[in-house]
Predict the structure.
Amino acid sequence: MVRRFREHGLMLFLDGELYHAFSKLQADKCLGRSFAGLRAFTEGIYRLGYISERSYQAHVEKYEVPLFEEESKPSPKELPKCDFCGKYPVVSVVKEKVLGIEKKCCGYHAENLRAHPKWEKVS
Ligand SMILES: [Zn+2]
């Protein structure tokens, strides 16, 4: 008769550096404590050569399950920037009258170019 294997608990006492790194891993991957621990353990035991590539991949897939899906929100990098100074937010678009070049602009530049002879407001 083959006994079914039951999972074993393992208590670890981490020093400050490892605990801090573990906390970062947990936050970066949005994992619960157990899954973050199992994910780190899987990585280490694989690198030490004690599990196969296939087993490693299966365990990564099993434990790298985020607690929740973060809503995608635009990062500041994805928001349009003022074409003159690079600041946020863009409040207006202006056009150079002769060449017709349009540029996005922040509040400061929208105000500065409002009465400028070379530029006109588009939106
Ligand atoms: Zn600007």
In short: The chain has a mean pLDDT of 90. The pocket of zinc ion is lined by residues 82, 84-85, 87, 105-106, 108-109 (CB under 6 Å).
